[in-house]
Write a structure and sequence with these properties.
By secondary structure, this protein is an all-alpha fold. It contains five helices and no strands.
Length: 100
């Protein structure tokens, strides 16, 4: 980082790119998330999956193509509950204006 700071006048674009990307601290969050996902895919009930099947499921999940049906059902339930609460709120907050 010191090199790019001192040579920022010589290489302005490269110095900007270097500061942007070299300043990011290394993290193992992505790999930990992947291994946690693997533990959810291969469980006691699904312990006979092929390596290729596991890889396909893991890739599809990480790309957002294959989604967990239970999570999706819970999301739908919460959406319906929010709609019901909103309707109840709207019904409770209606006023009647009487003109004399």
């Amino acid at each position: 980082m010191d090199y790019w700071k001192s040579n920022a006048a010589r290489f302005p674009v490269l110095a900007l790119i270097a500061r942007k990307y070299l300043g990011i601290p290394a993290s193992s969050a992505a790999s930990e998330r992947f291994f946690s996902q693997g533990a959810l895919i291969i469980s006691k009930l699904r312990n006979r999956l092929n390596k290729s099947t596991f890889e396909m499921i893991a890739c599809l999940k990480s790309w957002g193509i294959f989604k967990d049906e239970i999570k999706e059902a819970k999301k739908e339930e919460t959406k319906e509950e929010k709609k019901e609460k909103k309707q109840d709120y709207e019904e409770d907050n209606q006023f009647i204006i009487i003109k004399n």
